[in-house]
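On clarity, I found the account of how folds are encoded harder to follow than it need be. Since the whole study asks how a given chain folds, the encoding of that fold should be made plain. For the editor and my fellow referees, an illustration may be useful. An entry of this sort, consisting of the sequence and the corresponding backbone structure tokens, reads as follows:

:::
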Amino acid sequence: METEIFCQLLLATFLGALIGLEREYKRKGAGLQTFSLVALGASLLTVITLQFGSFNPAIIQAIAIGIGFIGAGVIFRQPSGTVGLTTAAGLWTTAAIGIATGTGLYFLAIFTTLLVLLVLSGFGLFEEKIFEKEQ
């Protein structure tokens, strides 16, 4: 049982790190450490809840509220526009990935991580090409 929990926590940390690496590559404020810790923390809270019996949906609410505070801290309004929204959304999704690993939904967590990387990398390139042509 403990071996599975350790693997869940390692997987959550690794998946968060993959997303964090993409953010580091783009030189965003929240990167490898932040995304790894968000996934790890969400997974750990989920595992702890499950160890005390059945799954309690209140833990998801608590994680969402906590991530909301972190997300609000990375969003800034500047004269050139609002920055940090994508990072905040990425942190929110990374917390959900942590919850998925904590509940044993490994394939879902891995697939979601791939989708996040597609959105952050692929869609970002797509947006640059489309908006560059329009300017």
